[in-house]
Design brief:
Helix content is 52%, strand content 11%. By secondary structure, the protein is of the alpha+beta class. The chain has a four-stranded antiparallel β-sheet with strand order 1-2-3-4. Helix 2 (72-92) runs antiparallel to helix 3 (96-118). The two termini are 30 Å apart.
């Protein structure tokens, strides 16, 4: 099945939005990580919001909260699969909301995957550059972007915003649980 006219234009628009959101989010993530490597590599901690946030460089081989630090390559393979899945989902959605959230999720996964590839001394075993120290956890911009995407996806699911808006209604309105399409005979 080939895309025709408006469908092709809408897909191009969604791809462009996905690319722009990804470029900005990945750019901010990679620039802040480069700054952290440059400015914090001496081991110091810089207070930003006392008792809540400081800047401290940490090289994390694991996932969130350091989990899976002995299986860094597995985390990398999962991140590659997730990035592929996000692109496939982009091609299947017709919703701009979902497009933006998929771009954020892709950016977060890709931002940390880049670290695992660039800083590897073996097969996909590099350590992620973390520098945002919350006191109970330490992360980076990619982690924040992933969290925003995850929360946004949950909100869209709970509010009933469709992944594909095949109806004639507006994408700006959530689908109602009892909504159904009318039959040609009006039923």
């Amino acid at each position: 099945m080939s895309l025709q006219g408006d469908d092709a234009r809408r897909l191009r628009t969604r791809v462009a939005v996905f690319a722009c959101v990804t470029a900005v989010a990945l750019g901010v993530d990679q620039i802040t990580k480069a700054l952290a490597l440059t400015k914090l590599s001496d081991g110091r901690s810089v207070g930003v919001l006392p008792g809540f946030l400081s800047l401290r460089l940490l090289r994390n081989p694991g996932a969130s909260l350091g989990l899976g630090s002995g299986a860094t390559w597995v985390i990398s393979v999962v991140a590659i699969a997730a990035c592929i899945a996000f692109v496939v989902m982009l091609m299947r959605t017709t919703s701009m909301r979902w497009t933006v959230l998929l771009a954020l999720a892709f950016s977060g996964a890709m931002g940390n995957l880049i670290d695992r590839i660039v800083y590897a001394d073996g097969f996909l075993n590099g350590k992620v550059v973390d520098f945002l120290d919350y006191g109970w956890s330490i992360g980076n911009v990619a982690d924040i972007v992933l969290m925003v995407a995850g929360i946004g996806i949950v909100v869209l699911l709970f509010m009933g915003f469709p992944f594909n808006d095949d109806s004639e209604g507006s994408e700006d309105e959530p689908a109602e649980a009892g909504d159904r399409q009318m039959q040609p005979d009006g039923r």
